[in-house]
Amino acid sequence: MLSGSDIDFVRGLSVFAGMSEDAVRCIGAHANRLDLAGGEIVLREGEPAKEMLVVMSGALEVVKRNKAGVEACIATLGPGEVAGEMSLIDIQPRSAELRAQGPTAVIVLGHGDIAAVYREDQKSYTLLVLNIAREISLRLRRLDQLLADLLFEIQDITRGGSRGG
Q1: Which domain holds residue 141?
Q2: d(Cα 128, Cα 137) in Å, to the nearest integer?
Q3: Which of 52, 72, 101, 152 could form a disulfide with 84 if both were Cys (CB 3.0 to 4.6 A apart)?
């Protein structure tokens, strides 16, 4: 269960935009707050995915490992950003590890919590799913741009020059 101030925080987030007050209170009644210490791993790559997280304070590192086990931080998520939202859509194992980058507070919203919103208010449930899809789409667009920029840089390096000058 979330506190009143945690629920106020939820109200201001784009992933919950447009939801009814009853649906927001329903989330507050079912979701949980988790306080993490620096370095604490909250989700592991490959684990079954059952919830999404919303960063309230602090930061989460999104970490991927290659086949040799070498890790890279591919993103840092701060207050208001969500993680694990893909699991609510595609029901696949975790695609990355999430690690607290210092003291961090997150809201944990599981599949059962989402089902409670569905039972409470189907319009708000639909908005939540659409908002999650928008978050995923926005990340995909950013990734597309990063990949294009990287490919251009590689092309420039292999041609022996530098792009744009």
Answers
A1: 4-159
A2: 14
A3: 52
Identify whether 111 is part of a domain. yes
DSSP conformation letters of 65-90: E-TT--EEEEEEE-TT-EESTHHHHH
The total number of structural domains in the chain stands at 1
Question: 0.70 cut: is pTM over it?
Answer: yes
Q: Are 62 and 98 in contact (CB under 8 A)?
A: yes
Is residue 165, in this structure, part of any structural domain at all?
no
* CATH code at position 99: 2.60.120.10
